[in-house]
């Protein structure tokens, strides 16, 4: 399941540089996560790094994008194939 950033986001800028897939960017009002790039850090780390550094705990799993660990690993492999 991809992650999402809720409106509790305080725009502290700590999550964006932690994302190894470049899935986090500044949106109109708060940071946003591109679900097509979010692998919950599968393939990179044991836990989502953005969740680890978020001071207000506003990065839950996105119920609109359910994915298994296998799905996330497949996405990771596709995202890193050209690197």
From TrEMBL:
<dbReference type="InterPro" id="IPR017900">
    <property type="entry name" value="4Fe4S_Fe_S_CS"/>
</dbReference>
<keyword id="KW-0411">Iron-sulfur</keyword>
<keyword id="KW-0479">Metal-binding</keyword>
<keyword id="KW-0004">4Fe-4S</keyword>
<feature type="domain" description="4Fe-4S ferredoxin-type">
    <location>
        <begin position="1"/>
        <end position="29"/>
    </location>
</feature>
<dbReference type="GO" id="GO:0005737">
    <property type="term" value="C:cytoplasm"/>
</dbReference>
<dbReference type="InterPro" id="IPR050157">
    <property type="entry name" value="PSI_iron-sulfur_center"/>
</dbReference>
<dbReference type="Pfam" id="PF12838">
    <property type="entry name" value="Fer4_7"/>
</dbReference>
<dbReference type="GO" id="GO:0046872">
    <property type="term" value="F:metal ion binding"/>
</dbReference>
<keyword id="KW-0408">Iron</keyword>
<feature type="domain" description="4Fe-4S ferredoxin-type">
    <location>
        <begin position="31"/>
        <end position="64"/>
    </location>
</feature>
<protein>
    <submittedName>
        <fullName>YfhL family 4Fe-4S dicluster ferredoxin</fullName>
    </submittedName>
</protein>
<keyword id="KW-0677">Repeat</keyword>
<dbReference type="InterPro" id="IPR047927">
    <property type="entry name" value="YfhL-like"/>
</dbReference>
<keyword id="KW-0249">Electron transport</keyword>
<keyword id="KW-0813">Transport</keyword>
<dbReference type="GO" id="GO:0051539">
    <property type="term" value="F:4 iron, 4 sulfur cluster binding"/>
</dbReference>
<dbReference type="InterPro" id="IPR017896">
    <property type="entry name" value="4Fe4S_Fe-S-bd"/>
</dbReference>
């Amino acid at each position: 399941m991809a992650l999402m950033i809720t409106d509790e986001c305080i725009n502290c800028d700590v999550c964006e540089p932690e994302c190894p897939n470049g899935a986090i960017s500044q949106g109109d009002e708060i940071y946003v996560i591109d679900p097509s790039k979010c692998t919950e850090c599968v393939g990179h780390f044991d836990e989502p790094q953005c969740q680890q550094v978020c001071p207000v705990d506003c990065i839950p799993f996105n119920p609109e994008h359910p994915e298994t660990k296998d799905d996330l690993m497949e996405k990771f492999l596709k995202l890193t194939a050209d690197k």
